[in-house]
Design goal:
This protein is mainly alpha-helical. 71% of the residues lie in helices and 0% in strands.
């Protein structure tokens, strides 16, 4: 079972790893906003999985947390490079997110309240679902083909991560 779990995690992460190429210059405001929203979202996701060091108790969750951290750090680098190539700011004005389907960041108090692996998994499921929602908006409204393709990869890989974490919960993630 453990070997199947690790193979599933590796496959899910590979879906999200293909964002290294420079996109074409055709962009719209939705492409820019998506990246500007995803950079802080990814950074917060990295913060959340770093909690796993002390909260995750199973090999599967420790492996998934480490893989998410590496993948999302690489994706932040790519998103930053894309925005810089387009001469766009890395962050949007604070009032701009609502008009583009912006979701609130994960509550810092909720992050601090994580006491065990089950709490961590539930928090991470909600966080990754927010990434899926933002990616769907980009796929629908974006213009840049490479960013839209990457958004589709984000949607698929985060969904696979959520499914894996739901399996961890079904298997009795430790409170």
């Amino acid at each position: 079972m453990e070997a199947r779990l690790i193979a599933a995690l590796a496959a899910a992460l590979l879906l999200g790893a293909g964002c290294g190429e420079q996109p074409q210059e055709q962009v719209n405001a939705d492409d820019v906003m998506f990246l500007q929203m995803m950079i802080p979202h990814h950074k917060q996701g990295i913060e959340i999985v770093r909690l796993a060091g002390g909260k995750a108790t199973t090999l599967g969750m420790k492996t998934l947390a480490a893989a998410i951290e590496r993948t999302q750090a690489a994706e932040v680098t790519t998103m930053t490079r894309w925005l810089s190539a387009w001469d766009q700011p890395l962050t949007a004005p604070s009032d701009a997110h609502a008009g583009h389907g912006g979701l609130p960041e994960t509550d810092r108090a909720r992050i601090a309240a994580v006491k065990n692996e089950r709490d961590l998994i539930n928090l991470l499921i909600a966080h990754q679902d927010d990434a899926i929602q933002m990616a769907r908006v980009e796929v629908y409204n974006g213009t840049n083909p490479r960013v839209k393709e990457w958004a589709g990869q984000v949607e698929r890989s985060r969904q696979a991560q959520i499914e894996q974490m739901l399996t961890f919960l079904d298997q009795g993630a430790r409170p």
